[in-house]
Amino acid sequence: MIKVTFDEMLEAGVHFGHLRRKWNPNMAPYIFMERNGIHIIDLYKTQAKLEEAANALKQIAKSGRRILFVATKKQAKDIVAEEVKKINMPYVTERWPGGMLTNFATIRKAVRKMAGIDKLMTTPSWNNLSKRERLQVTRERAKLEKNLGSIADMNRLPAALFVVDIIKENIAVAEARKLNIPVFAIVDTNSDPTLVDFPIPANDDASKSIALIIKVVVSAIAEGLAERKMANEKSAKEKREKEAAAKEAKVRNDSVKQAEDEEDMKVEKASAKRPRTKVAKKVNKEENK
């Protein structure tokens, strides 16, 4: 996991907040000072909160669950899309579709519709449609891809939400809170950190600040995924070794049993060939009578 330094955050402008008149009183514990009417964020607290959030996200990824990233503001959308693709996690960088979490079944229907259009395009029926119909279907497919393409493989509700700017993404945060989904977020001095479970006090308007924090978060998730992969490989190896040992033990037991059976047969044959005594003959004669 990447460890971000104080100087790196200072250079990225993570410490710059909003104007004093726009501040949220709940952000007071994370504000270091005021300069020229602008609040300055305490970077030591940002560093601590970022590390706490990164460790929590790492554990979620290690458990095999999904984390949904939400960043529709202009400064963040390209950064989030580029970084999150590396770890194959779902993300929303266009308009947040209302009810995406609280009405997840309907969103899944739209995703299945997009898959149905893809399947239609590969069949002979596609060529039987008129030019106008094909254009309409293509436009609908493009619209669905733009809004839902990045969550096409999300078959269940995410285990957590990572949000850039909770004021702009207030609907997403409200839906997550309603469903008790943990929310990780970059919160600026004009935001309310009590609305999220893991607030990261930082500048959510500067692209450099957003990029630095997203880079750390993605690194933590990638590490969690790598540890999960190693654990699965180790478990599979142990399972194969146990199966091989059990198979070897079975072969050994079968060999021992076969040797014992052969020995018993030899003893029986030897006893059958041994001449009977007079006493045995007399007993058999009496039994025949």
Q: What is the topological layout?
A:
Elements: H1 6-12, E1 16-19, E2 31-35, E3 38-41, H2 43-62, E4 67-70, H3 74-84, E5 91-92, H4 104-121, H5 125-128, H6 131-148, E6 160-164, H7 170-178, E7 183-187, E8 198-201, H8 207-273, H9 278-288
Parallel strand pairs: 4-5, 4-6, 6-7, 7-8
Antiparallel strand pairs: 1-3, 2-3
Helix pairs in contact: 2-8, 3-8, 4-6
List keywords for this structure.
alpha/beta, 5-stranded parallel beta sheet, Rossmann fold, 9 helices
Account of the protein in words:
- It is a single chain.
- By secondary structure, the chain is an alpha/beta fold.
- It has a single domain, classed as 3-Layer(aba) Sandwich (Rossmann fold), CATH 3.40.50.10490.
- Helix content is 57%, strand content 11%.
- The chain has nine helices and eight strands.
- It has helices at residues 6-12, 43-62, 74-84, 104-121, 125-128, 131-148, 170-178, 207-273, 278-288; strands at residues 16-19, 31-35, 38-41, 67-70, 91-92, 160-164, 183-187, 198-201.
- The strands form two sheets. A five-stranded parallel sheet has the order 5-4-6-7-8, with helices on both faces. Strands 1-3-2 form a three-stranded antiparallel sheet.
- Helix 3 links the parallel strand 4 and strand 5 (91-92).
- The protein starts with 5 loop residues before the first helix and ends with a helix.
